[in-house]
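Case study.
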Amino acid sequence: GEDVEQSLFLSVREGDSSVINCTYTDSSSTYLYWYKQEPGAGLQLLTYIFSNMDMKQDQRLTVLLNKKDKHLSLRIADTQTGDSAIYFCAERQQYSSASKIIFGSGTRLSIRP
Amino acid sequence: KAGVTQTPRYLIKTRGQQVTLSCSPISGHRSVSWYQQTPGQGLQFLFEYFSETQRNKGNFPGRFSGRQFSNSRSEMNVSTLELGDSALYLCASSDEGRNEQFFGPGTRLTVL
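After joint prediction, the assembly is written out as follows.
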């Protein structure tokens, strides 16, 4: 199957850490991505991880990959109001020279004061 | 470098009409992909073009078509529009051999 699944909503207090989880089904996925979408805007690539890695850190963002369980997470440290957005997990499926990216349904992150 | 640009940003059409959307990738990027985003179905892959050739296609009816020009600009066309075609259409470009895909702001199509 091609499913990428995420919970729909997450609410965190400003300054706390946010953890957004995702599961995917295609064990042959090469890259896994996190995108951010703010209202009325396109998708902004936040970070990505190669499938043979288990962790990647980039400033406030930490990506953890459990390939055995096909589980991906994005941790945002010190969450700020500007982090309010929808976050999409995505997997890249490669077929010889062609590829396509399969997206999850997105997790809407809201920040409480 | 300028980012991915899409025109028009907003479009209103009526059922049965056809529409053409345009995408200009980041300079030097030769791969362009198109996605449809709706509240009900989320983000769905339409097609990918590379060097003027369609390299991959999603599960959409033949009313959805596209092409890519020699300067890597791409267009997608939807014929015989249906109400369900109302969506945000996103274009993304990437540099062959690299793994990042950069998205444009999208074209919001409303079909009445």
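Observations recorded in class. The mean pLDDT of chain A is 90. Residues 32 and 60 of chain A are 18 Å apart (CA to CA). We will return to this complex in the next lecture.
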